[in-house]
Amino acid sequence: MTLTQNAPAPHQAPPMQPTADQAVLIVHGRDRTGIVAAISTVLGRHGANIVSLDQYSDDPHGGAFFQRTVFGRPDLKAALPAIEEDLRQELANGFELEYTLRDLSVPKRVAIFASKTDHCLLDLLWRNRRGELPVNVSMVISNHADSADEVRSFGIPFFHVPSQGADKSAAEAQHLQLLTGNVDFIVLARYMQILSGEFIERVGVPIINIHHSFLPAFIGADPYAKARQRGVKLIGATAHYVTEDLDEGPIIEQDVVRVNHAHTVAELRRQGADVERSVLSRAVLWHAEDRVIRHGNHTIVFQ
Amino acid sequence: MTLTQNAPAPHQAPPMQPTADQAVLIVHGRDRTGIVAAISTVLGRHGANIVSLDQYSDDPHGGAFFQRTVFGRPDLKAALPAIEEDLRQELANGFELEYTLRDLSVPKRVAIFASKTDHCLLDLLWRNRRGELPVNVSMVISNHADSADEVRSFGIPFFHVPSQGADKSAAEAQHLQLLTGNVDFIVLARYMQILSGEFIERVGVPIINIHHSFLPAFIGADPYAKARQRGVKLIGATAHYVTEDLDEGPIIEQDVVRVNHAHTVAELRRQGADVERSVLSRAVLWHAEDRVIRHGNHTIVFQ
Amino acid sequence: MTLTQNAPAPHQAPPMQPTADQAVLIVHGRDRTGIVAAISTVLGRHGANIVSLDQYSDDPHGGAFFQRTVFGRPDLKAALPAIEEDLRQELANGFELEYTLRDLSVPKRVAIFASKTDHCLLDLLWRNRRGELPVNVSMVISNHADSADEVRSFGIPFFHVPSQGADKSAAEAQHLQLLTGNVDFIVLARYMQILSGEFIERVGVPIINIHHSFLPAFIGADPYAKARQRGVKLIGATAHYVTEDLDEGPIIEQDVVRVNHAHTVAELRRQGADVERSVLSRAVLWHAEDRVIRHGNHTIVFQ
Amino acid sequence: MTLTQNAPAPHQAPPMQPTADQAVLIVHGRDRTGIVAAISTVLGRHGANIVSLDQYSDDPHGGAFFQRTVFGRPDLKAALPAIEEDLRQELANGFELEYTLRDLSVPKRVAIFASKTDHCLLDLLWRNRRGELPVNVSMVISNHADSADEVRSFGIPFFHVPSQGADKSAAEAQHLQLLTGNVDFIVLARYMQILSGEFIERVGVPIINIHHSFLPAFIGADPYAKARQRGVKLIGATAHYVTEDLDEGPIIEQDVVRVNHAHTVAELRRQGADVERSVLSRAVLWHAEDRVIRHGNHTIVFQ
């Protein structure tokens, strides 16, 4: 494990304007009459104005309830503990709901995992530097050292944790040591190592992955070559939360690009890389803005 | 004006399942703390459960407020007058808001205006018959008689009101006679006549229009030929509400298709027709479901 | 089997302008130096002008060769036999090539197979009537009688051949009797019966099928419900040639539409139906214009 | 003007594999019987195999003729002068045609012009470094010094030529001095200065520009704010060749992204930047591969 951190990049873009004096509240649980009223009444009591509210119920008769509310008021930071306490009491009051409340002026902290292929990694770093991705990139972890200089030129710590064969426990122990307490979520930006179920559980934060997608699916090695043999006309990518079932977790975002018979396997990969990086950046943005709610094996995305 | 109505078509699809015991409430006005709470409290008081709620404010500090709420309760029809009265009192209470409340079991009534070109007209009728477009098509009005049999085979009244040169007042008087009291909105499905400002005002219901769109715009006659000369790579369509400023009203929906140099003008028109009918059908669907709120010269669309 | 044919529809659109005095030549085989020169020299010898030529070789070093050439000359029909004989001799001359030559003024004859679901069937009939699909629809065959009147109102013969349980041989014998000698290709427009390998071989014409597609694939019954549980963000469709491997034949065209968590299974199906009909109509158009060349398990599509 | 060149970047990607022993021939002029035969006969005479051939005629009766041919043979470089001479004689022989012949192993040289906004500039440099864009970036010229370090970290010369008010002649003289003899085409990657007609003529190489596009168009300052007021649902970009008529030159490529009412002007700009960079990179790729033929005010693009 290498632990050098470069100096900040010399001509960094102006820091993204944090959304001052606004917070986002996610409420999720069993639908019942009166939830919206209860929440909005609490917010009103504290002089908070609702900036946007998205609510969705997957079955009007006792289904699951999802609500994303952005609200604001002057001097929010000082008022937030009282608002939260009030919400806690109100929502405990006979509702079966979970909620999270987050000050939007504090960006989420993310660790990006990468391997040799760096198109997704760099796309995230560039967007972040341009102010398009409201996260704090705490660190980049890779099983290859190749991207170290590039990452550090963004002023971001780079840690090289080589893969160590079939037994990943030593590498994962290093990962946990680096991550614990330091990040709010993890992005696998074409990270080519499989995470153990134990790691997923112990790290305790959401993990977003990106992988190629085809219609139909091509199982096994070299899916681009197989896709070309079948003559597919679309190449896609899927961003999803990582669960123990590899590549079977809740989907956050998908997209495709059009290809044709004249595209070589290399060109299909290039097109695939393009759609991967745009799909991943949208998934990370939406997660960063608390627009994605996991429920069972799918997601509610309030765009 | 021809006023024969055909018998209903023999093998009509099953009527669309009306959304029983649900209503949609649109609230629109000046943003202020407490609106969401006030509305949801009223609904809760009447035992109504919120099925979906979309709220948007275009400026957290005193901007405009938009809310679409779908709610339900058993025996809604009987309860609706009391809910409406309660809402009226609550929202009058210091808020500057307009609202509309509509029983979703009663589809909106629409008149479709068409000319010779029938791709948009027929697409709407087919979708309606398939149960994909929850409207009652009260009548089709055309300045050409060509589509009469086709329209009547759907069991829908067809009225032929020929265009009458520069002075449209006689034709528009016939239109008003047919429409007044009978429709909730009008769709111009490639209707090639210009409506007078007086007609728009007197008919008093929203009018949706579809027209081709290009980047850049091509002004004047035969835009497809001009688009081909410039070698455009995209052909688009825009559905919008009709205002006195021709083709300048609030946009509801837009889309494009990809074309290339080998497309003849006739093929560009065919592609344009395809995108026109899909854009128009989405705009009509969203209007029918009260998903579109007009505000100034634009729209809020809660999809 | 019902064998009544309706009178032609009363208000048929003007017949599609056949492409007079033009032919399309497809050449396909082993790449070798000199093929393009040989073909274009023959055409030049007969005073034929090349309108468009697309050529593709999947490997510059001895791969497969594909060429689509549209050419024209005055009084083509009379000249075509001599052109064909000349091509036959020239291409026999040391090349390993197959070719087909077709007079573009004679549209291909197609039979459409359908079941209860009629969105794809009707879309093809409407496009054909509008002059957008240059084929002769010789007949519609269905295992349900529901669409008979609708189909016949287009002036097209409708044959009801009920499905007959596990043993399809009697039904397929009827199919072959109807089809043999009468059609150049077959379209399965959401035909819900499986064709036997024997039928596919004996009918001897290309068969195009459409089916829904998802990323990832959802195997088994009710894929839309499974897609919703997984929270897919795209719904797709694939048009392909039918081979004995069900749904595994060479892909002609694919497309997707965007969906979200709020779409019910019924809405997903409606969106799927929309993308199915547009994908199928493109595949049929390209096949009708000889733009699709099968090669192994994929296709070359010269758009 | 600053003229320092940095050392090559330390961890440059492997150089793009040049397409060895292949050349591209573009032929463009008046259609006549026999052109394809004449060209392919010449190529065959020199043992050259045709890898791909796209031909298009905009009117079968004496319209304009366009052909792109990629061909290869062993030891192409040595054979090319004789092939060219043979083509010259053959095409002079009664045809009214222009042609260009280019060895594909020698990438085109490009100068990129930029201003402060660097998303398009950096996207081109990244793609080039990843081997996705087969050009030699000879230099970057900007009227701002901000991007100097970033550009030089790619090992590419950066020249700062400040804008000098209304009279651009001094700056343009510097541009000409830098460019003359050094580049095959120029890309304006969000370069915010207007080029004089004299410069366009004197520089003598094609210039590609990118600009935002809307349906409808929004003229004048701050189009994104106007687009938001009108509630557009699509934001687009157009890449085109620069002519003296500002933003009116032949279109190479266009694309759009979907937006909605909740997007702020800043978000619309971010979305616009994304579509700009992808459209520009496609246009540059296609120009680099000689896939684009200018004709009148439009382009033939052989994809």
UniProtKB/TrEMBL annotation, chains A, B, C, D:
It comes from the Bacteria. Residues 24-106 form the ACT domain. GO terms for biological process: 'de novo' IMP biosynthetic process; one-carbon metabolic process. The active site is at D247. Its EC number is 3.5.1.10. Keywords: Hydrolase, One-carbon metabolism, Purine biosynthesis. It holds the Pfam family ACT. One of its GO terms (molecular function) is formyltetrahydrofolate deformylase activity. It catalyses: (6R)-10-formyltetrahydrofolate + H2O = (6S)-5,6,7,8-tetrahydrofolate + formate + H(+). Transmembrane segments: none annotated. Catalyzes the hydrolysis of 10-formyltetrahydrofolate (formyl-FH4) to formate and tetrahydrofolate (FH4). NCBIfam families: PRK06027.1 (NF004684), PurU (TIGR00655). Belongs to the PurU family. This is Formyltetrahydrofolate deformylase.
